[in-house]
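hi! just following up on the protien thing from before. the input was this:
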Amino acid sequence: MKKYLCAFLLTFILNIPLFQIVDAADTDIVTVNATVLSKSNCKFNSAAAAIPFGNLDPANPADKTVNTTITFRCAGSSPMATFFISDDDGSYETGPNANRMRHTTLSSEHIPYTFSLNPTSGTVPKNSVQTLTISGTVNGIDYQDAVTGNYSDRVIITLAP
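and the predicted 3d structure came back as:
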C-alpha cells in the first residue's frame, strides 16, 4: 500500500506518469512478410541460343543480320499468362541498347551491334509453347576499320514472371 501511495504522491507532485513508476514497459519488433505467387510461371524451354555473325570482311563491309529463336512456356494458376522479356545489353554495352562485341585478345577493340527481342511482352494461353525471336545486326560501317580477330559478347535474357 505504501508503494502505491508513494507512487501517487510522486505522480501528483513531480508530474510523472504513474505507469512509469509502478511497472517498467518494454517493446519488441515483429517482422511480418509474405510472398505472393505469380499467376504466371514462365520458363525457357531452350537451353541457349547464339547470334553467329560469322566472317565479317572489312574489304566488303556489308550489314549482316542474324536471327535465332528460343521457345518458352508459361504455366501457373491462371488460364492466361502474362510475360515480359528483357535483356541486359551485353557485357560490353556503352548504354541502353548500345551493345558491343569485344575482341577476344585486345580488350580495347569493340564492334557495335544491335540486338532485339520479339515479342517483349504479351498474354498467352497457359502451357502453350511460345517462340521468342532474337535478332542481331552488325553494320558494315562499324567493322570496316576493325582489328582482325575474333569478337564476342554475352547477353542475358530475362523472362518474367
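The CA atoms of residues 50 and 68 lie 7 Å apart.
The longest helix spans residues 2-14.
cheers
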